[in-house]
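> example.struct
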Protein backbone atom coordinates (compact mmCIF):
# COMPACT_ATOMS: atom_id res chain seq x y z
CA UNK A 1 0.00 0.00 0.00
CA UNK A 2 1.15 3.53 -0.72
CA UNK A 3 2.19 5.70 2.20
CA UNK A 4 -0.52 7.82 3.81
CA UNK A 5 1.34 10.96 2.70
CA UNK A 6 0.42 10.13 -0.92
CA UNK A 7 -3.31 9.96 -0.14
CA UNK A 8 -5.72 12.80 -0.98
CA UNK A 9 -3.39 14.45 -3.49
CA UNK A 10 -6.42 16.34 -4.79
CA UNK A 11 -6.16 18.55 -1.69
CA UNK A 12 -3.24 21.06 -1.76
CA UNK A 13 -2.16 20.56 1.85
CA UNK A 14 1.03 22.46 2.74
CA UNK A 15 2.18 19.38 4.72
CA UNK A 16 1.17 17.02 1.90
CA UNK A 17 -0.86 14.96 4.39
CA UNK A 18 -4.39 16.37 4.93
CA UNK A 19 -5.46 13.57 7.28
CA UNK A 20 -2.71 14.18 9.85
CA UNK A 21 -2.32 17.94 9.25
CA UNK A 22 -3.40 20.18 12.15
CA UNK A 23 -5.03 22.83 9.92
CA UNK A 24 -8.46 21.08 9.72
CA UNK A 25 -8.48 20.99 13.54
CA UNK A 26 -7.43 24.63 13.80
CA UNK A 27 -10.19 25.62 11.37
CA UNK A 28 -12.82 23.81 13.45
CA UNK A 29 -11.51 25.55 16.59
CA UNK A 30 -11.47 29.03 15.07
CA UNK A 31 -14.70 29.00 13.07
CA UNK A 32 -17.86 27.63 14.63
CA UNK A 33 -19.60 25.23 12.28
CA UNK A 34 -16.71 25.07 9.78
CA UNK A 35 -16.89 21.92 7.71
CA UNK A 36 -13.75 22.27 5.60
CA UNK A 37 -10.12 23.30 6.13
CA UNK A 38 -9.62 26.94 5.20
CA UNK A 39 -6.33 26.16 3.50
CA UNK A 40 -7.08 23.17 1.27
CA UNK A 41 -10.77 22.31 1.61
CA UNK A 42 -10.24 18.91 3.27
CA UNK A 43 -13.01 17.97 5.76
CA UNK A 44 -12.48 19.73 9.09
CA UNK A 45 -12.48 17.83 12.38
CA UNK A 46 -15.76 17.48 14.23
CA UNK A 47 -16.51 20.19 16.81
CA UNK A 48 -16.79 19.45 20.50
CA UNK A 49 -20.32 18.36 21.49
CA UNK A 50 -21.19 17.32 17.92
CA UNK A 51 -23.71 14.48 17.95
CA UNK A 52 -23.70 11.34 15.82
CA UNK A 53 -26.91 9.32 15.57
CA UNK A 54 -26.73 5.56 15.09
CA UNK A 55 -29.12 2.62 15.36
CA UNK A 56 -27.84 1.76 18.85
CA UNK A 57 -27.94 5.29 20.25
CA UNK A 58 -26.66 8.85 19.92
CA UNK A 59 -23.03 9.69 20.63
CA UNK A 60 -21.52 13.04 21.54
CA UNK A 61 -17.96 14.20 20.85
CA UNK A 62 -16.04 15.34 23.92
CA UNK A 63 -12.59 15.91 22.40
CA UNK A 64 -10.40 15.27 19.35
CA UNK A 65 -7.72 12.68 20.15
CA UNK A 66 -5.64 12.38 16.98
CA UNK A 67 -5.17 10.18 13.92
CA UNK A 68 -4.76 6.41 13.74
CA UNK A 69 -4.45 4.56 10.46
CA UNK A 70 -6.98 5.91 7.96
CA UNK A 71 -9.21 7.71 10.45
CA UNK A 72 -9.45 10.44 13.06
CA UNK A 73 -10.14 9.57 16.69
CA UNK A 74 -12.41 11.31 19.16
CA UNK A 75 -13.34 10.54 22.73
CA UNK A 76 -17.06 10.68 23.36
CA UNK A 77 -20.03 9.43 25.35
CA UNK A 78 -23.21 7.56 24.54
CA UNK A 79 -25.85 10.07 25.58
CA UNK A 80 -28.44 7.71 27.07
CA UNK A 81 -26.13 6.25 29.72
CA UNK A 82 -23.05 8.52 29.58
CA UNK A 83 -20.84 5.51 28.90
CA UNK A 84 -17.48 6.53 27.37
CA UNK A 85 -16.82 5.55 23.75
CA UNK A 86 -14.14 6.08 21.17
CA UNK A 87 -15.33 7.35 17.79
CA UNK A 88 -13.18 6.69 14.75
CA UNK A 89 -14.15 8.99 11.89
CA UNK A 90 -13.40 7.79 8.37
CA UNK A 91 -13.51 10.19 5.44
CA UNK A 92 -14.68 9.92 1.84
CA UNK A 93 -13.74 13.43 0.63
CA UNK A 94 -15.53 14.32 -2.59
CA UNK A 95 -12.40 15.27 -4.54
CA UNK A 96 -11.00 11.76 -3.91
CA UNK A 97 -14.19 9.66 -4.19
CA UNK A 98 -17.02 10.20 -6.67
CA UNK A 99 -20.66 9.84 -5.64
CA UNK A 100 -20.96 6.23 -6.75
CA UNK A 101 -17.75 5.18 -4.97
CA UNK A 102 -18.81 6.98 -1.81
CA UNK A 103 -22.23 5.33 -1.72
CA UNK A 104 -20.85 1.85 -2.36
CA UNK A 105 -18.22 2.16 0.37
CA UNK A 106 -20.72 3.54 2.89
CA UNK A 107 -23.04 0.58 2.28
CA UNK A 108 -20.20 -1.90 2.63
CA UNK A 109 -18.92 -0.21 5.79
CA UNK A 110 -22.26 -0.51 7.60
CA UNK A 111 -22.44 -4.19 6.61
CA UNK A 112 -18.94 -5.23 7.72
CA UNK A 113 -17.80 -2.64 10.28
CA UNK A 114 -17.25 -4.81 13.36
CA UNK A 115 -17.38 -8.51 14.16
CA UNK A 116 -18.65 -10.70 16.99
CA UNK A 117 -19.00 -14.41 17.65
CA UNK A 118 -21.85 -15.87 15.61
CA UNK A 119 -23.28 -17.72 18.63
CA UNK A 120 -23.41 -14.47 20.67
CA UNK A 121 -20.99 -15.70 23.33
CA UNK A 122 -19.06 -12.96 25.11
CA UNK A 123 -15.36 -13.84 25.10
CA UNK A 124 -12.34 -11.60 25.43
CA UNK A 125 -10.01 -12.44 22.57
CA UNK A 126 -8.39 -9.02 22.77
CA UNK A 127 -10.20 -7.41 19.87
CA UNK A 128 -11.35 -3.84 20.41
CA UNK A 129 -15.11 -4.09 20.96
CA UNK A 130 -17.17 -2.45 18.22
CA UNK A 131 -20.62 -1.09 19.12
CA UNK A 132 -21.73 -0.05 15.64
CA UNK A 133 -20.70 1.29 12.24
CA UNK A 134 -22.48 4.45 11.09
CA UNK A 135 -22.49 6.11 7.66
CA UNK A 136 -23.51 9.76 7.40
CA UNK A 137 -26.42 9.72 4.95
CA UNK A 138 -25.70 13.08 3.35
CA UNK A 139 -22.06 13.80 4.21
CA UNK A 140 -18.70 12.25 3.39
CA UNK A 141 -17.99 10.67 6.77
CA UNK A 142 -18.39 7.29 8.44
CA UNK A 143 -18.00 6.44 12.12
CA UNK A 144 -16.93 3.33 13.98
CA UNK A 145 -18.05 3.40 17.62
CA UNK A 146 -15.86 1.33 19.97
CA UNK A 147 -15.36 0.99 23.70
CA UNK A 148 -13.39 -0.87 26.32
CA UNK A 149 -9.80 0.31 25.83
CA UNK A 150 -7.92 3.59 25.48
CA UNK A 151 -7.59 4.23 21.77
CA UNK A 152 -4.35 6.17 21.54
CA UNK A 153 -1.83 3.87 23.26
CA UNK A 154 -0.62 2.07 20.17
CA UNK A 155 2.48 -0.11 20.11
CA UNK A 156 4.00 2.54 17.85
CA UNK A 157 3.65 5.18 20.57
CA UNK A 158 4.78 2.70 23.22
CA UNK A 159 7.95 2.05 21.22
CA UNK A 160 8.71 5.77 21.01
CA UNK A 161 8.08 6.34 24.72
CA UNK A 162 9.55 3.18 26.24
CA UNK A 163 12.07 1.89 23.70
CA UNK A 164 12.82 -1.73 22.92
CA UNK A 165 10.97 -4.54 24.67
CA UNK A 166 12.80 -7.38 26.40
CA UNK A 167 12.71 -10.77 24.73
CA UNK A 168 10.33 -11.98 27.44
CA UNK A 169 7.90 -9.16 26.66
CA UNK A 170 8.19 -9.83 22.93
CA UNK A 171 7.33 -13.47 23.61
CA UNK A 172 4.23 -12.34 25.50
CA UNK A 173 3.17 -10.04 22.64
CA UNK A 174 3.53 -12.99 20.27
CA UNK A 175 1.65 -15.31 22.62
CA UNK A 176 -1.32 -12.96 22.92
CA UNK A 177 -1.24 -11.98 19.23
CA UNK A 178 -1.20 -15.59 18.03
CA UNK A 179 -4.04 -16.50 20.38
CA UNK A 180 -6.14 -13.68 18.91
CA UNK A 181 -5.25 -14.70 15.36
CA UNK A 182 -6.16 -18.30 16.11
CA UNK A 183 -9.57 -17.00 17.20
CA UNK A 184 -9.96 -14.74 14.15
CA UNK A 185 -8.90 -17.39 11.64
CA UNK A 186 -11.02 -20.28 12.95
CA UNK A 187 -14.18 -19.04 14.72
CA UNK A 188 -17.59 -18.51 13.14
CA UNK A 189 -18.08 -14.74 13.16
CA UNK A 190 -20.99 -12.40 12.60
CA UNK A 191 -20.97 -9.01 10.84
CA UNK A 192 -23.41 -6.13 11.58
CA UNK A 193 -25.46 -7.25 8.55
CA UNK A 194 -26.02 -10.58 10.39
CA UNK A 195 -24.03 -12.36 7.70
CA UNK A 196 -21.81 -15.06 9.23
CA UNK A 197 -18.42 -16.29 8.09
CA UNK A 198 -16.00 -18.95 9.26
CA UNK A 199 -12.80 -17.10 10.07
CA UNK A 200 -11.47 -13.77 8.88
CA UNK A 201 -8.01 -12.42 8.09
CA UNK A 202 -7.02 -9.27 9.97
CA UNK A 203 -5.01 -7.99 7.01
CA UNK A 204 -3.73 -4.83 8.71
CA UNK A 205 -1.48 -5.80 11.63
CA UNK A 206 1.10 -3.13 12.41
CA UNK A 207 2.39 -1.02 15.29
CA UNK A 208 -0.49 1.47 14.94
CA UNK A 209 -3.34 -1.05 14.67
CA UNK A 210 -2.25 -2.85 17.84
CA UNK A 211 -3.05 -1.23 21.18
CA UNK A 212 -1.37 -1.97 24.51
CA UNK A 213 -2.93 -1.72 27.95
CA UNK A 214 -0.38 -1.75 30.78
CA UNK A 215 -1.51 -2.69 34.28
CA UNK A 216 -0.06 -1.32 37.54
CA UNK A 217 2.10 -4.41 38.00
CA UNK A 218 3.61 -3.86 34.53
CA UNK A 219 1.72 -6.78 33.01
CA UNK A 220 0.13 -5.85 29.73
CA UNK A 221 -2.47 -6.91 27.21
CA UNK A 222 -2.45 -6.16 23.50
CA UNK A 223 -5.57 -5.57 21.44
CA UNK A 224 -6.03 -5.66 17.67
CA UNK A 225 -8.19 -3.07 15.89
CA UNK A 226 -8.65 -1.54 12.42
CA UNK A 227 -9.26 -4.74 10.44
CA UNK A 228 -8.57 -4.44 6.72
CA UNK A 229 -12.12 -5.47 5.75
CA UNK A 230 -13.38 -2.04 6.80
CA UNK A 231 -10.18 0.05 7.06
CA UNK A 232 -9.26 -0.47 3.39
CA UNK A 233 -12.64 0.86 2.23
CA UNK A 234 -11.26 4.36 2.78
CA UNK A 235 -8.19 4.05 0.55
CA UNK A 236 -8.82 6.50 -2.33
CA UNK A 237 -9.47 4.72 -5.65
CA UNK A 238 -6.49 6.46 -7.28
CA UNK A 239 -4.24 4.46 -4.90
CA UNK A 240 -3.56 0.80 -5.82
CA UNK A 241 -6.03 -1.26 -3.79
CA UNK A 242 -4.56 -4.05 -1.63
CA UNK A 243 -5.28 -7.64 -2.59
CA UNK A 244 -7.38 -9.71 -0.21
CA UNK A 245 -5.13 -10.75 2.67
CA UNK A 246 -4.41 -14.39 3.54
CA UNK A 247 -4.00 -15.84 7.06
CA UNK A 248 -0.30 -16.46 6.51
CA UNK A 249 0.16 -12.73 5.88
CA UNK A 250 -1.19 -12.05 9.38
CA UNK A 251 1.56 -14.28 10.77
CA UNK A 252 4.20 -12.44 8.72
CA UNK A 253 2.91 -9.05 9.89
CA UNK A 254 2.91 -10.16 13.53
CA UNK A 255 6.47 -11.44 13.13
CA UNK A 256 7.62 -8.12 11.70
CA UNK A 257 5.86 -6.26 14.52
CA UNK A 258 7.71 -8.45 17.07
CA UNK A 259 11.02 -7.76 15.32
CA UNK A 260 10.49 -3.99 15.56
CA UNK A 261 9.51 -4.20 19.24
CA UNK A 262 12.59 -6.25 20.09
CA UNK A 263 15.00 -4.05 18.15
CA UNK A 264 13.33 -0.91 19.46
CA UNK A 265 12.86 0.95 16.19
CA UNK A 266 11.51 0.56 12.66
CA UNK A 267 14.20 2.27 10.59
CA UNK A 268 17.88 1.75 9.89
CA UNK A 269 19.83 4.67 11.38
CA UNK A 270 22.44 4.73 8.62
CA UNK A 271 20.13 4.46 5.58
CA UNK A 272 16.89 5.84 7.07
CA UNK A 273 15.14 2.94 5.36
CA UNK A 274 12.82 0.40 7.03
CA UNK A 275 14.72 -2.18 9.03
CA UNK A 276 15.34 -5.40 7.12
CA UNK A 277 15.04 -8.55 9.25
CA UNK A 278 17.36 -10.26 6.77
CA UNK A 279 20.18 -8.07 8.09
CA UNK A 280 21.63 -10.18 10.88
CA UNK A 281 23.41 -7.18 12.46
CA UNK A 282 20.06 -5.59 13.38
CA UNK A 283 18.99 -8.40 15.71
CA UNK A 284 19.61 -8.57 19.48
CA UNK A 285 21.81 -11.54 20.42
CA UNK A 286 20.12 -12.45 23.72
CA UNK A 287 17.57 -15.05 22.60
CA UNK A 288 18.52 -17.16 19.60
CA UNK A 289 15.42 -19.35 19.98
CA UNK A 290 13.11 -16.34 19.75
CA UNK A 291 15.03 -15.06 16.73
CA UNK A 292 14.61 -18.36 14.91
CA UNK A 293 10.91 -18.40 15.80
CA UNK A 294 10.37 -14.89 14.38
CA UNK A 295 12.34 -15.91 11.27
CA UNK A 296 9.78 -18.67 10.70
CA UNK A 297 6.86 -16.37 11.45
CA UNK A 298 8.05 -13.81 8.91
CA UNK A 299 8.65 -16.58 6.38
CA UNK A 300 12.44 -16.31 6.18
CA UNK A 301 12.60 -19.96 7.25
CA UNK A 302 10.01 -22.76 7.06
CA UNK A 303 6.71 -20.96 7.77
CA UNK A 304 4.11 -22.17 10.24
CA UNK A 305 0.95 -23.78 8.90
CA UNK A 306 -1.35 -21.75 11.13
CA UNK A 307 -1.57 -19.41 14.11
CA UNK A 308 -2.38 -22.42 16.28
CA UNK A 309 0.77 -24.27 15.17
CA UNK A 310 2.87 -21.14 15.68
CA UNK A 311 1.56 -20.57 19.20
CA UNK A 312 2.18 -24.21 20.14
CA UNK A 313 5.79 -23.87 18.94
CA UNK A 314 6.18 -20.58 20.82
CA UNK A 315 5.05 -22.10 24.11
CA UNK A 316 7.53 -24.96 23.63
CA UNK A 317 10.51 -22.65 22.96
CA UNK A 318 13.43 -22.93 25.40
CA UNK A 319 13.87 -19.81 27.49
CA UNK A 320 16.35 -17.09 26.53
CA UNK A 321 20.06 -17.52 27.26
CA UNK A 322 20.31 -15.69 30.60
CA UNK A 323 24.10 -15.51 30.46
CA UNK A 324 24.06 -13.86 27.06
CA UNK A 325 21.33 -11.49 28.19
CA UNK A 326 23.33 -10.48 31.27
CA UNK A 327 26.55 -10.06 29.27
CA UNK A 328 24.73 -7.99 26.66
CA UNK A 329 23.28 -5.71 29.35
CA UNK A 330 26.73 -5.28 30.95
CA UNK A 331 28.25 -4.57 27.53
CA UNK A 332 25.60 -1.94 26.75
CA UNK A 333 26.09 -0.29 30.16
CA UNK A 334 29.87 -0.30 29.66
CA UNK A 335 29.53 1.34 26.25
CA UNK A 336 27.22 4.03 27.68
CA UNK A 337 29.65 4.79 30.54
CA UNK A 338 32.55 4.93 28.08
CA UNK A 339 30.58 7.29 25.86
CA UNK A 340 29.79 9.58 28.80
CA UNK A 341 33.41 9.64 29.90
CA UNK A 342 34.55 10.68 26.42
CA UNK A 343 32.23 13.69 26.31
CA UNK A 344 33.97 17.09 26.73
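> example.seq
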Amino acid sequence: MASFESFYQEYPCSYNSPLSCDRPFQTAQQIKGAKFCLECGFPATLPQEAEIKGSQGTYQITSFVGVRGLGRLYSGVQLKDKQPVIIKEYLLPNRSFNESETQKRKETFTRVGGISLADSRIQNFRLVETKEAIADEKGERCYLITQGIESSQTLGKYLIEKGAMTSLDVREVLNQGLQTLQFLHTQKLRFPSNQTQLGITHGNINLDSTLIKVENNQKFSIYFCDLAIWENLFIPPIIPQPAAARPEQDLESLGLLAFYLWVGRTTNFSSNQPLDPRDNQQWPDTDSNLKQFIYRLIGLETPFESAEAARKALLELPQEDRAKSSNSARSTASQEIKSLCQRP
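> remarks
DSSP finds nine helices and eleven strands in the chain.
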